[in-house]
Amino acid sequence: MDADVLVIGGGNAALCAALMAREAGASVLLLESAPKAWRGGNSAHTRNLRCMHQAPQDVLVDAYPEEEYWQDLYKVTGGNTNEHLARMVIRASSTCRNWMRRHGVHFQPPLSGALHVARTNAFFMGGGKALVNAYYRSAASLGIEVRYESPVDKLEIEEGQFKAAWCNGQRITAKACVLAAGGFESNREWLRQAWGQNERGEWPSDNFLIRGTAFNQGVLLRHMLEEHQADGIGDPTQAHMVAIDARAPLYDGGICTRIDCVSLGVVVNREAKRFYDEGEDFWPKRYAIWGRLVAQQPGQIAYSIIDSKAIGRFMPPVFNGVKANSLAELAHKLDLDASAFEATIAQYNAACQTGQFDHTVLDNCHTQGVMPQKSHWALRLDKPPFFGYALRPGVTFTYLGLRVDDTAAVRFNDIPSHNLFVAGEMMAGNVLGKGYTAGVGMSIGTAFGRIAGLNAARVAQSLSVLSGPVADEKQEHASH
Fold it and tell me: FAD-dependent oxidoreductase 2 FAD-binding domain location, by residue (predicted)?
């Protein structure tokens, strides 16, 4: 055998699996498809981890109990989630930080401001790139072998059991394997196939930008679903998709391209019409629906419009907004019909009800008599200069994946494999049927990466596969 445990992937979930397997005594080989400079996949673009806690806890303020976390997740997914697995993730999020610190991850003190997540999310000092680098340093110190530029294009599986992987023409064997190679968001052809053509004759995915890595082509995911008939889960059109600056690069624009002023103004499509409630809920709970909303608009483009009252109330993006001293001038610069645009803004302004504006709470500033309504933070757009940001759908990761149970085992005809496991984006659809809330992707990857790695190591050592609760217990033992 080339290793006791083979881990395929190079992001957070893969690294958690590799570290856990090595801590449990297994020899580990990790294959990362990207070059070393681009290692880490989408995890390099992350910032935080959503964490359950019953009381103030190191970098987390107040409390964020299990039931509130679950309700937040249930709401954004519309109930399209496996509650048992979701609650496993939630509970694991409360105990993983000490283990992460042991492997070199640092957390920053809570920040005040417009993010509203100091209570719910722990932020990585230096962001996701620092987290990924810390894990790779720890992997090196523990003797984990890492091979870069090593994409896996096929697996040998017999009767649901992993035998070998093929990488760059080489056959690699291991006693157990963890799949953590990401979704298919960077595969333009697969996105086009999944989204198809709309009623306007457009191919919506042609206008999508990819927030993260260019290396998540979904080769291994498709191979598992089509060649090996592994049990799948999820809708291929569902994804963590946000509204980002239309000027962002095709790949790897990351978080800094997100536009966060949506709830402080209005959003119009290219026909200068509003199409959704901009103030439905706090931005961290709603930012992830806006990519899909924009994808449904003509030309897959929209425009976030604010006035000067909003400046300083949101995290500024990397690109400056288009600035104008009048609405007519802004419409001209954004190539919108000025009459239609001014009429939309006038209708919105007339509908704004006087209230006590407070962007830190669900305030009573709302609209009345206009559709769509704006439920909170509705202030008239009347103080120049005005600003506009063109928006495109930005795909972070796709939700089509492999069905799992609480052991993280891949399933074939509803029978779990004895030695093949999956973590991260390749199985996130079990928890995220649709929607998203900030930091939950890292929670899923960390929880299931650790479970998959530990169970793979136990298999490699010819011991029984552990279930989720027992894996949690073993993880806690390992953390001490």
Answer: 4-431
